[in-house]
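Give me structure tokens for this 480-residue protein.
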Amino acid sequence: MSHPPATAAHPPRHTPEAPRDLVGVGIGPFNLSLAALAQPLTGLDTAFYDQRPGFRWHPGLLLDDARVQVPFLADLVTLVDPASPWTFLNHLRARDRLFPFYFAERLHIRRSEYDAYCRWVCDHLPSLHFGRQVDAVRWNPQHRVFEVDVTQLDADGEAEALGRTYTRNVVLGLGTEPHVPAPLKPLLGTAGAPVVHAADYLGHRDALLAAGHVTVVGSGQSGAEIFLDLLRRRPAGREGLHWIGRTEAFAPMEYSKLGLEHFTPDYTRYFHALPEAVRDRLVPAQWQLHKAVDADTLAAVHDELYRRTLHGGWPDAVLTPGVRVRTAGRVGGTKVELHLEHTQQGARSRLTTDAVVLATGHERRPLMPLLAGLDPYLHRDSGERPRVDDRYRLVLDRAVAAAGCHVYVQNAEIHTHGVGTPDLGLAAWRSAAILNAVTGAEPYPLPARTAFTTFGLPQERPQTPAQRQARSLTPLGDGV
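Here you go.
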């Protein structure tokens, strides 16, 4: 067959007495993985809503040569169900591209290709509903189900109809939004010299290339890709580029094989069991595991810079790590002035530029505006963050859990589950774990061990005073 057959949608259920089994909020890669793995589970009534008109994965960063930083096996389903019809390889088969892919010998696919694959899956899953904005999630104590308010949007994004559905389980996959440092927020999108976030880079690339001098702020993967893209497109000797970032170096991503085991379920379980204070220290210290730059991208930057020295001279490009933007403002309406501070030297300077690209990453969308109705039931940690159990469920009052109803989160649990939270390589595993919990069965058996590394030492059980005394009286024998 050329593609998996579409299946008939479950009949709608709109009453508290006949709730859905699961409602997903947001349709990014993580909830799309969940929807794909849920599709063959007959009898499971699911619906997924997203306010966007269709699926797009970071469209402003779909550069021609940009590649996904995990192997293609980290698609929506393969790592828990390689026989699924929704694998990346089956997508290639449906497009008659298996042999070209085979000869390309690429473990890491283009980002645009991953986007096309996800949109192909979306085209065949009837449980997905785009143009639907979820406004609120509440607990109905009388019927012991969740109420989900949904607004249907028209082509212009305006409200067209209001609705409500009921469900036993909710899965929040709200995704992320561009992070803009406070000193630069007043400049974003205002008239004058372009100041854009990397998420919108492709839409503004022509204007950036026309600018006399461009500054890229941010030393992660998107900053490196955008700096390289601008460098390749600007004339030799007149590059007019400056790349700055807060990290101490333009550092390569940790990509050793044992280092990658931090992105296994084994490490996730270990991390979740650590004390909260230890987890909070670990996450920022592990930035090179997930916020650094792919070594090939760094090599390509160096190669391009080196190529421009072949006939003498140096390119007009400045790369300075360890720099933060203290304040920023517009100068004469046509330029931007950045007030910089070097984090190690303590030195300060000013940089005047014609355009700025903020490759300052993304941050998770806050849960609480959507979950305001659940606030009385929600348990929090010492930092006022929602507590998340080892099954990716928000910890709610016992009355809710006793009804067999839960709210699951995807990519909102880095404070409880660690650096693997946003990693595509754990998408299928987490989705399978959620479905196993929702069904109370094991439609997707998961391996007990996934890493060669043993994280932590075995925990000894607390001993009673009598056990401790008996141990102290045990003869040591002749051995030493």
